């Protein structure tokens, strides 16, 4: 099994005056989205549990995860890692200026488990390259690779914003050990990872 990537030659403009340069931009080839019923059916087959029982357990687990995560807990997702909430907010110097309006967004942070990271790291990657005319020009296959470490600085990118997502990381979590995934979480959970060319497909510079 391998992760499939497309590298497509695109005209990128790095400013309004530029005529642009052609660069190969990589992005994942996404598979079809698996609906809940198919996942439940497959899980029932693998576990030997009745499909109706599996659906009831699935629904109950979802409700528990949602309830505990919105209470501020880091909740274990079996075999995957942990999920918790975070936020982005503006920082202020004076405590009298602290108010709810400083919160700019609420976030859901997924912290992958060590096993999941290891599985991703050893999964092969197949890259198929297409030129500006849509013609296939090259295929590349790689083996193991590095996985971005979720541990790291969760401060905002300039503009005085901070991420308060890990301030309660060490709270009591109903007597259970929820720290399975290792790490403090990272805001850069970009599943696409697909900007290998320094720009975007619509010709703007993301850097």
Characterise this structure:
It is built from 3 helices and 8 strands, in the order E-E-H-H-E-E-E-H-E-E-E. It has 207 residues and is α+β, with helices and mostly antiparallel strands. It has one domain (2-163): HU Protein, Chain A, CATH 4.10.520.10. The relative contact order is 0.23. Mean pLDDT is 76; it is low at 152-162 and 164-207.
Q: What are the defining features of this structure?
A:
207 residues; alpha+beta; HU Protein, Chain A; 4-stranded mixed β-sheet; disordered C terminus
Quick synopsis:
The chain is α+β, with helices and mostly antiparallel strands and 207 residues long. It has three helices and eight strands; from the N terminus they run E-E-H-H-E-E-E-H-E-E-E.
Write the layout of secondary structure elements.
Layout: E1 2-12, E2 21-28, H1 36-47, H2 51-69, E3 75-77, E4 81-90, E5 103-112, H3 114-122, E6 124-130, E7 136-142, E8 161-163
Helix pairs in contact: 1-2
CATH-defined architecture: Irregular
**How much strand?**
25-35%
The secondary structure category is alpha+beta
What is the H/E order?
Answer: EEHHEEEHEEE
- Largest sheet, spatial ordering of strands: 2-1-6-7
Would you report the number of β strands?
Answer: 8
Q: What is the total number of structural domains? A: 1
Span between termini = 32 Å
Number of helices: 3
CATH topology: HU Protein, Chain A
User: Mean pLDDT, nearest integer?
Assistant: 76
CATH homologous superfamily identity: IHF-like DNA-binding proteins
Question: Percent range for helical residues?
Answer: 10-25%
Strand count, sense and barrel status of the largest sheet are:
4 strands, mixed
Cα Rg:
21 Å
